Amino acid sequence: xxxxxxxxxxxxxxxxxxxxxxxxxxxxxxxxxxxxxxxxxxxxxxxxxxxxxxxxxxxxxxxxxxxxxxxxxxxxxxxxxxxxxxxxxxxxxxxxxxxxxxxxxxxxxxxxxxxxxxxxxxxxxxxxxxxxxxxxxxxxxxxxxxxxxxxxxxxxxxxxxxxxxxxxxxxxxxxxxxxxxxxxxxxxxxxxxxxxxxxxxxxxxxxxxxxxxxxxxxxxxxxxxxxxxxxxxxxxxxxxxxxxxxxxxxxxxxxx
Length: 256
What we know:
Layout: E1 11-15, H1 20-31, E2 35-40, H2 43-50, E3 57-61, H3 67-81, E4 86-89, H4 106-134, E5 137-141, H5 154-174, E6 179-185, H6 205-209, H7 219-229, E7 241-244
Parallel strand pairs: 1-2, 1-4, 2-3, 4-5, 5-6, 6-7
Helix pairs in contact: 1-7, 3-4, 4-5
């Protein structure tokens, strides 16, 4: 499908869609009938995923922290599909560890904020006109690390905390035309969603048992929540942060 300008299909743009949670969202939406444009800095894996369904998927290489890349990706999405109904700001630097704060370089700090926080701002900025025209929705990807922390994760935590605040600010600014919500995943096992065919060893029983829900999360868990939040069924929901972590942030943990 080279030109979907007159298509009645709903169209989504997913950032960071080549691997991990983003890949799960891309596949879930396309299998549900959406046309899905997605971007990533990983060109090879992005092109591999797009090749699995050239009718419904379109990959664009680029960095969400680079505004010219963002402008190009949004324009190319509209040129391909003719409209935009949903934006999923998923791209981010996933590794939260940056070492002791006294050794954290400004460059490391800034790069995480650029990708994890400024990136969603830039993509939203350039997607808003098309989303306003369609009455669309935005989902931003935060983390439970916006709510709780391990040592030596200051840059990541700050970027994800910023996403939660950006979400409710955008919901007030863009409503009622555009709804904006946020998802904060906990431990999601993305090892089988990185592209390639290497087998993945099973997690330990204790990994699952520590979760009140009885298991570690999977990309499908997050994809299903995102699909709901961008659907008409969620038309009364905006400005919210949805924690999807198997109950871990509610679990009181002390050494006995």
